[in-house]
Amino acid sequence: MISNYANDMRPHLGNAAITMMTPFTSRKAQATSHHRYALHTLDYLTVQSWRPVIHQGELYVLDAQSNLWVPYERQNLLRLIAELNDANKNCEKWSDYTGIAEQVSAIATQPSFFRDAPVGTAFLGSFYTIAGQQLSSEPLLPEHRQRVMLDFAPARVATPNFSQFLDETFRSVAIDEQEQQICLLQEIAGAILLGLMPRFQKAALFYDPYGRAGKGTMERILRQLVPSAFTSAVSPFKWDNEYYLASLIGSRLNVVGELPEGQAIPAANLKSVLGGDLISGRQPTRPVVMFQNEAAHLFTSNHLITTKDHSEAFFSRWLLIEFPNSLLRSGRPLDPGLADRIIGQEMSGIAYWALQGGVRLLQQNRFSPSSVQDRLMQKWRRSTSSVDEFIHECCTLRDDLLERRSAFYASYKAWCNENGRKPHAKGSLKEQMEHRIGLPVRFTLLDGIEIIRGIAVQEAYKDRLTAL
């Protein structure tokens, strides 16, 4: 007989309870092994024809009232196994319960179940999706495979406070900068809302060197596009630790503010997480779980991140948004209630705005270009790479130019000594220049002498070295 606790642990079944009784009873009659007990437990948790699914170490069951797939805690699963089968053969002690739970995991694991879900987001029982690169909505169904639902609906309505905030935050005298930044930000918002960011293997960095420029307000607004239960705050500087990595399991949005300055980011781990590699995480007292990142990552900082990785594989992972209009710098008054007003009054319109950004992102299959992104990326590269900074300050790039490799390295090394930078070894310098996409140089031989074509050290710098 099933106890009251076991009944409480059952998902909302609706009319499905009647259809489940036959398989449930027959499984119990035959159950003598852990495998049979596991099948018996899965039958009990099945809703209509939708069987529970193990994804990234977590058990999800269908909730018939909302049509969402909801997590079923491991402790609850162990207690349910005990309530259903206790004192039966091979189900008499704790090790039996855990063994049956492991068999449940082996049977129900479906790595692609949620990954293959339609692109879209649930709002108040409706599923908004991109069909034929157009936005449409329909009733939320189990086959939409949604774990997240927002408690408001998108609407094509005016957002006066938000629109004014965007205009004041990104206003620029440079042609097209404001429009380009808002366009890119809209696509980032859409990628967060629709769960698309992992597909593009990017992270967003909100950059403001002075403070009080609006990045915190923008981050708070974007956080409303994901229910709080599905957000995390795991610093990328902790991604070399499996316990911190485990906190990303099930997260749809990972938001971290004010990254440390001067400390090099663990770039290899960052590339693995953002690149969709299989990574391992461990929660205390739990086994290691292998999983792939499903979260969008948004970081805010007053400085560009320190890195020892100067590869394209690292820098290509980033979307940079600059917040150029600091209230501290301009002396304008703060508006501490702005974020609350926008969130309280305009989220339906902001969600619609974000969905339009998601539509454009899918149509283009890439994020829109931004001259601010290009400028900041060049600045970031130069600040972390002595090679890039030397080329920027002391060299000329042109197809018809050439420089002896030994002379180029001697000039580079002298510049590093002048500026307190540690020079790369000669071989490392060549590797960085050869692998730098967009740097129009090539190493070759001329009359048996190694040369670099497409670049030359400026004569003014050579003269200064000679004078010294």
TrEMBL record:
Alphabetic keyword roster: ATP-binding, Hydrolase, Nucleotide-binding
Classification via SUPFAM superfamilies: P-loop containing nucleoside triphosphate hydrolases (SSF52540)
GO molecular function annotations of the record: ATP binding; hydrolase activity
Superkingdom of origin: Bacteria
Record carries keyword Hydrolase: yes
All residue ranges annotated as the SF3 helicase domain in the record: 180-336
UniProt-listed NCBIfam families: primase_Cterm
Stated name of the protein: SF3 helicase domain-containing protein
Protein's organism: Ramlibacter aurantiacus
Source lineage: Bacteria, Pseudomonadati, Pseudomonadota, Betaproteobacteria, Burkholderiales
